[in-house]
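thread from #wetlab-drylab

HS: before we spend reagent money on co-crystallization trials with 0RA, can we at least see a predicted complex? here's what I'd submit
DV: go for it
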Amino acid sequence: MSEEEIVNNEQSYSAKNIQVLEGLEAVRKRPAMYIGDTSEKGLHHLVYEVVDNCIDEALAGYCSDIKVWINEDGSVTVSDNGRGIPVDMHEKEGRSALEVVLTVLHAGGKFDKGSYKVSGGLHGVGVSCVNALSDRLLVQISRDGKSYEQEYHRGKPLYPVKETGTTDQTGTTITFKPDSEIFTTLEYKYDILANRMRELAYLNAGISLTMTDRRVKNEDGSLKNELFYSELGLSEFVRFIDASREPLIEEVIHITTEKYGTPVEIAMIYNNSYAENVHSYVNNINTIEGGTHLTGFRRGLTRTLKKYAEDSKMLDKLKIEISGDDFREGLTAVISVKVAEPQFEGQTKTKLGNNEVIGVVEQTVSEALGYYLEEHPKEAKVIVDKVILAATARHAARKARELVQRKTPLSGGGLPGKLADCSSRDAQKCEIFLVEGDSAGGTAKQGRNREFQAILPLRGKILNVEKAMPHKVFESEEIRNIYTALGVSIGTEDDTKELNISKLRYHKIIIMTDADVDGSHIDTLIMTFFFRYMKPLIEQGYLYIANPPLYLCKKGKTEEYCWNEAQRQRFIEQYGSGNENAIHTQRYKGLGEMNAEQLASTTMDPEHRILRQVTIENAAAADHIFSMLMGEDVGPRRDFIEANATYANIDA
Ligand code: 0RA
């Protein structure tokens, strides 16, 4: 359809079609409107957008293999073995269908009649957006025995589609280099992309996704490379998330149906932890704010388990009420629905709004889980026992929690004795350092800017919340101090686990520990606590890790702090003419080895420090990792911190 036709056709005069009229110039003018933002997130979003189109091709039944490469020059290649985007001439437009798909907003699915787009990126913007935001894009098509290609610069074709040879394959390969005029960073992170590929593999059983990093060689000379493929889909996803947890039932409960035309897939298992780990997806998009599918799941679960427990007289002796939360303690589940016309709501547009989906999922769960419980009385008893245990523990936790709430300052009083508070009351400007040990805490107190920096020393290792019952967590003095100091409270009258952060006293919460193995373990313990008990603070970007230097290098009067070996080598080059022995290196093992002034200038002062922000790119992957980290192995723990705490001099 030509642009003119759209204008003249009253029927198609919808907001969606008006957008079709906009050229790609609109995307370049307001990129954030189309891909969320122009930072690291948006940069990676470009890849998801292209891959989602390949997934659509796979879900339509035409594609089995998707490959992604990060190239040496920073570009990315996404390749599939689908039908290939059509290249035939579009008579009225006077250009190829391929060019239309790549240069017209929302034109991606125009040829796909009948089948609705189940995948599609968060904003469903299509590959034309990726094209608009790329300095260079090359598309290569194999179709009808021939190969074709076309190149673009910032969305504009450099030449018409050209035939390049013959082939017996079919498929689409897109290579693009994001535009430095648009993005604030151009560096692709392997782990971020790999996490998404893994997620997509679990969500779409039977599709293989390969990820290769051409920038990184393994020891044997091969390129860093992983294949993500799942035969069993969500049940394997649940196994992956719970890899380090102890299951209470042997088999994952796996439901796959289509109800009133809506495909629903659910996998769930109970483990012996106290955490609820329910992840939900709509059209392969992680709905981190939940929505109607999650509501339906919870209702179905509560109703079915409660009815089963009552009917089998297992609750007769129980004197306390069971709440909805109790049915989900130790539950790990993934819910994936495909909705033809999803309505996304909420702050980050990741909350499903379609009301009809509540009933769809609730009925699905009720029927399938009801049937499962009848068929598996042994497992059913284990699950109900776990629910009863959760209800009992919740009553104990409530008492401990009330203790926390009483101590939470209502009007500025009652702060923990160990807290050295700052004088400003403007939370946006205020920071709190959670410092390992009283001695480093003392140094930090001396070195801080007391106007806006507060210090809370923590005694050594805080409780491992991954292993402790919730009421034990609330009984821990160190943890109560964190709640009280931050001004954060939990669970009011209705006895939920809802976190109240409206009175948060600091917008930067900075974990500051020694730069050694123990320190990194403490970082992880504290991050785990925040992940499980104060997740919104991480989601809103309030949690950071301080980054103390590893060395102080000296040559005569010249001194320089170094954060890594490369920086130290550079100092040796510059001031010792490459001679290691001409340089004096002081290795800092702990914060305590620095005096107040050194600690302040290297690690605390916003002018000079480097903070690492803790982010959750992928909640399911983080879940897997946090449960894994709590084991004895130090290796993966460090890797995690490196990969997930983004380095950024956020003060600069
Ligand atoms: C438009 C129409 C058809 C397929 C595609 C686009 C398509 C797009 C992408 C993007 C990445 N991989 C892709 N594979 C296919 C239908 C083609 C037909 O009817 O033969």
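DV: Residues 406-548+611-616 form a domain with the Rossmann fold fold (CATH 3.40.50.670).
HS: ok that's useful, forwarding to the group
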